[in-house]
């Protein structure tokens, strides 16, 4: 029984509670969060850490008139519970269920959509300037984690906001974590802020003076305030934010609900851009998450009592295959260096980091910098391997073109989570990388059918290829299918799986599994289709395409990408260039943002599983 949580349908209901009741509500929120996420999976540790912060914000401010922009957005579960969506948590991140991120179309209380990091201050500033132009008087608050403060976009926004001098509240949620432990100069700076006893002593002294002097006139107060601010800048390096035009407040205990409420009530009266530095503990209230917050950042369903995942696979993931192979390659090639953007464990780089600490670089949440940093390394003869999720590489698009590919530098991009990733939904689906990579001059793009082929492609990418090269592979357990097909990887060469007639299916990467399922169904109908593992998405094997067209009336392309500009489009272009007349059907995701759901559910919904491919081919045949 949730004595207080069940009474909260909107933030206005919070205002009916006193402090003791809200403290009990915080306990109920953590308990409900743990029970829900243990069943559905989701982002746990970050939400456990912002319970008091979220309650205080929604108690003090007037939502939805006042607007909160959540950076990344995965820490907005408590916000969703307090804005009428607690009843929907049984379907959190499920197909057609409650999103794990803020979605304005889901609720008027979600001020701005989010999914990637470092965007909140820019978006909030846009909301604030629109408010000014429309002569409204509401508050705009951006809540950004310290991990997101490593992204360059955050500083571009701070610089702009300080210059605009409009009313804007930025809350820096400082929990020393992004997904892996934070790294870099800003993290060290925040640690200094966090641990400075000198500044805390000065704050206490300042408060004591104001409390003990019966009447403090404006001149005296102004002098004391200048002394306080000067001490803050000298002792803490607060000039980082103050120099950008922000008034810095903090550090503040993010789990002290009365202190947070007093603070927010006061800052509502202040003018100009404010930055409030709040210290929280990621995973607070659940011992396993407190001890290992990185393990409980994003979780599947788990045993609440033991903390152990309910679904375990004895087979290696694609990320694990990458991680093991890149260590083997680096042992033989001393020029190989590893780069990650705050995703060491997620991309499988843990072992590499331990074995080659001087050759491993975590650039934090800064994919743009990571790509150009890799280009600099490559220009001096090193072989950088940058492991990055497909949807996060989108942020480095200019650097891919301008710094890596234009100079034809040997940078290897290991693109993890390519294709649909599932429950994280639209912002995380990696269904655009084939489209945004294949048209860039000098770029080579490969896609493996199974774990063995991923290893071979990594060997090729590091030790054979001499220019920019990307190897894309999906989320989940690495396929072990087609173990008998071990053709050596040669530049631009596809692989025959089966030679047939009338129908030819050309598949990229792990989609070969679904394609083969369709082939078996067609064989049961008396058909004899060809099946090709394309391997290289650019350059395409044009000899194979011509050979296929000689023996086929219908050519079907299968890809884990949007159709527009993808692998299938490239096939059509090549046939058009050669004047080849053949019926081509591209089976891919439509040009839309693919919703959340299990991977297998999404493949089935969009006709990309074996049954869907088979039915499409039967329609083409008029059967």
Q: Strand count, sense and closure of the main sheet?
A: 7 strands, mixed
The total of beta strands comes to 19
**Widest sheet: strand ordering:** 9-8-10-11-13-12-17
Low-pLDDT parts are 193-200, 230-235
So how many helices? 25
Mean pLDDT: 91
- Approximate shape: globular
Q: How big is the Rg?
A: 27 Å
Straight-line distance between termini: 57 Å
Question: Would you mind describing this structure in some detail?
Answer:
The chain has 623 residues and is α/β, with parallel strands linked by helices. The protein contains 25 helices and 19 strands. The strands form four sheets. It has a seven-stranded mixed beta sheet, sandwiched between helices. It has a five-stranded parallel beta sheet with strand order 2-3-4-6-5, with helices on both faces. Strand 18 (552-562), helix 23 and strand 19 (583-589) form a beta-alpha-beta unit. Helix 6 packs parallel to helix 7 (152-164). The radius of gyration is 27 Å and the shape is globular. The N and C termini lie far apart (57 Å). Residues 193-200 and 230-235 have low confidence and may be disordered.
List keywords for this structure.
623 residues; alpha/beta; seven-stranded mixed sheet; five-stranded parallel sheet; 25 helices; 42% helix; 16% strand; globular
Task: Give a short overview.
The chain has 25 helices and 19 strands. With 623 residues, the chain is of the alpha/beta class.
List the helices and strands and how they pair.
Layout: H1 11-14, H2 19-40, E1 42-43, H3 45-49, H4 51-60, E2 67-70, H5 77-85, H6 120-133, E3 140-145, H7 152-164, E4 168-174, H8 185-195, H9 197-212, H10 218-236, H11 239-242, E5 247-253, H12 257-267, E6 273-279, H13 287-291, E7 298-299, H14 318-332, E8 336-340, H15 350-355, E9 360-362, H16 367-379, E10 383-389, H17 390-393, H18 397-405, E11 412-416, H19 433-437, E12 444-446, H20 451-463, E13 469-472, E14 495-498, E15 502-507, H21 511-524, E16 530-533, E17 536-538, H22 542-551, E18 552-562, H23 567-578, E19 583-589, H24 599-605, H25 610-620
Parallel strand pairs: 2-3, 3-4, 4-6, 5-6, 8-9, 8-10, 10-11, 11-13, 12-13, 15-16, 15-18, 18-19
Antiparallel strand pairs: 1-7, 12-17, 14-16
